[in-house]
Fold this protein.
Amino acid sequence: MNFTTPQEAVKLIKSNDHVFIQGSVSTPETLIDAMVERAHELKNVTIYNTFAIGRRDAPYCDPKYADSFRTISFFVANNVRKAVNAGYADCIPAFLGEIPSLVRRGIVKVDTVLLNVSEPDENGYCSFGTSADIATSAVECAKTIIAQVNKQMPYTYGDARIHVSQIDACIHVDEPLVELPISIPNELETKIGNYIAELIPDGATLQIGVGGIPNAVLSALSNHKHLGLHTEALTDGVVPLLESGVIDNTQKKILPHKTVCSLILGSKRLYEWAHYNEKLLTRDVAWTNDPFIIRQNPKVMAINSALEVDLTGQICADSIGTRIFSGVGGQHDFMYGGALSEGGKTFIALPSQTKGMSKIVNTLTPGAGVVTTRFQTQHVVTEYGVAHLLGKTLAERAKELIKVAHPDAREELDKAAFERFGREYSRIR
């Protein structure tokens, strides 16, 4: 392997290059710092940032480096959110599962990739560990690969591997990965989780996200049988169900007996569990998030969240008005694939209000993005129950959603619905 210093490794980056930085909890921070040290030597380097849970704001987004680095994010996570909303970075709105195609077709150009990989196996292959997602396509298309070989990166099986002979320069590090605190569901989240769990049948294939509500759903599934997991993000909440055999992946049609994900984020325990675990596969997000792959599994249960839901079932999940908060991610991919699956169901789960403001609204805040259209929304779940929207008219949807809105907001929403839908609304019991 071509081991060198961080400072020497990043000399392979040239002005006007397009650099992809691996995301998830795999951010190669030592290489990033070395690259930023060279800012005075570089001009107009485009940085592609993906879903990345950083310990800090991305240093290349600092306004003082604006002539050296231009940052474009595929998913606005905590490390670039301030910069995007301050106008010092930008984002590309795209379904996460479609981004690898943009890279492979050359619409998004990648010259250099910065990776954070595992130590090589006996055959000389390093694993991308916790982040296959877009990194697989970026490595496939890049001219130059720079890697930090990390003693603490788990070795995971699947698409996301690279032979040492393909790495142009590498450094050795012993750096812990970013850990996410395990979200313990509160009373409200537990109610939501229980409502969803009641609608999940034995033998279902789960796609589940990150946070208190997903963990509440998982906690409520302990008495289920023969569940499968085909998901974008793998978190700590699934491990007890895997260890107890509730998730055994026996009923899946796609890669049965294997847990499938595209990225891993959670605790050190999760990373240790994933290390050389032959029952776990990390795959290119173009494959995991392909709705026509997803649909082939039976009874897909896609569980996602939102920032706002309007009375017709439009889902905003990426922005607060015009302020970008995150991205489309894989919500649409799994909402579509889940709806096509035989026996599949899709859920949007959220608290009825935040800081006294209703999350179910008459119309979305001006500037808000629609991540999931009203044509695709099936169930909206709050602590007050489940709104069943599939096959309902606009007026019927409004009535269903108002039932699960916070009581303090229901009167105002009811008036708005009557003004909007007229006699059709008033005739619904």
